[in-house]
């Protein structure tokens, strides 16, 4: 099996103190993609920056304390690419990809937005550029005989089944009609597959993010915004997809939970 996990750590230094290190030591994943690292590599403890048994790639944001993505892989990457050729976003700590034998694995942290603000405009600019890159990436992978996995926090719930309180969020960033339509284009036009949904077509959720406010976690009032998006070839080999939801609120080391997918090789 080839197993990939993606998780928004909500600050890697803080997550490391709460349980991320123990989780990483116990995981059976071959690749782990992290988002919202919010630290320069030099600011990370050695056991987090370069843990034993892992090859690590960190792509911090030029804006201190914001964003940041990383990839941990058991096998040394053949190639690393930071960013996707965007003048605006390549230094923002939102995308990094590594080439492993036969597969490209990327960690994505798509901007979160806020309706009526510059943050939403930024999100829309990112989406426009990134969709064009996804099309290019799929075409290049086909020529090279490679598969692609784009793992991360996409900050969009695609369907009503992807968030608990969808009716009250139809005018909020993350569930806007135009955002959902864009994600449909990733699947229907660009040709990628939402692996978790393909394995759980009729399920509510499984959610991967719960607000720290109120009783969201206890009531499972969450959102499914963390995706493993794949080219059809490897998507067809997906055997299982699980959200590693903490058994208790006190055991959470992020407001997101790891999403883990295992593929036949």
From TrEMBL:
Q: Which InterPro entries match?
A: AP_endonuc_1, Endo/exonu/phosph_ase_sf, Endo/exonuclease/phosphatase, ExoIII-like
Give all residue intervals belonging to the Endonuclease/exonuclease/phosphatase domain.
6-256
Q: Which domain of life is it from?
A: Bacteria
Q: Which cofactor does it need?
A: Mg(2+)
Q: Which keywords has UniProt assigned to this entry?
A: Hydrolase, Magnesium, Metal-binding
What PROSITE patterns would the database entry show?
AP_NUCLEASE_F1_4
CDD domains hit by this protein: Nape_like_AP-endo
Q: Name one Pfam family in it.
A: Exo_endo_phos
> Hey, which family's this protein in?
Belongs to the DNA repair enzymes AP/ExoA family.
Tell me what this protein is called.
Exodeoxyribonuclease III
